[in-house]
Amino acid sequence: MTSYATSSAKAEMSELRRLKSILPPELQSWVTVEGTTEVNPPLLRCEEVGSDQVEIQIDLVKWDQLAMDQRNLLFWHEVARIQNDTIPRDGWEMAALAIGLGGAVGELWVQDGLLLLLALALCGVSGYRLYQKNNGEKQLKELLDADEKAIALATRFGYSLPNAYKSLGSALKALIDQSRSKRQRAKYEARLQALKRSAAKAKAKTKSMQSEAQ
Question: Treating both helix axes as pointing N-terminal to C-terminal, what angle do 93-110 and 113-133 enclose, rounded to 10 degrees?
């Protein structure tokens, strides 16, 4: 008799294979899909695992609670972030900032003006890059751009435009209900509102085209 654990493992492997099959062909050679083994991980996360390899990591326990169409659109959102080159990266900025600050303090003692200026310049550049990476408006725009591209990917894989919007909208509503973080919930709500506006524009455009055709 097949145990529950074995059946669960088979179901998870089947789902990972299914997700790999709905990767755009141009990504299949360098993007992999794996279940995460972390404690309390995010639902989805992209991570560079090499110079030319990206891995989409999924919390399969939370994932299993979503409907198939919701999973597909959230998955394509992550795919869109990869295509847009907006996935988080382990940057050099924090290390550079620490080196710059350490150098600046050291040069104050030895009083070398040129090296002090170089250390302060390093602090400035790394600090500005960190500000850019953590800028809330920039992050939200990247998420909204990925949502729009996820809709386009869904239509590429056979979804009608209304169903693509509906599926992503219901997925975001599910994430809002599940989220315990006010900050994260606010991001989901902002994405949902932007998605509703985009869907309304797409619907109006479709009606206009149909009227002109008649």
Answer: 160
Cα–Cα distance for residue pair 45/39, rounded to 1 Å: 14
Strands 31-35 and 53-58: parallel
| Residues 187, 140 contacting (CB under 8 angstroms) | yes
HEC secondary structure over the chain: CCCHHHHHHHHHHHHHHHHHHCCCHHHCCCEEEEECCCCCCCCEEEEEEECCEEEEEECHHHHCCCCHHHHHHHHHHHHHHHHCCCCCCCCCHHHHHHHHHHHHHHHHHHCCHHHHHHHHHHHHHHHHHHHHHCCHHHHHHHHHHHHHHHHHHHHHCCCCHHHHHHHHHHHHHHHHHHCCCHHHHHHHHHHHHHHHHHHHHHHHHHHHHHHHHC
Confidence of residue 214 (pLDDT cuts 50, 70, 90): low
pTM of the predicted structure, to 2 decimals: 0.77
How does pLDDT run across 127-168, given as a tens digit for each residue?
555 445 455 688 899 999 999 999 999 999 999 999 999 999
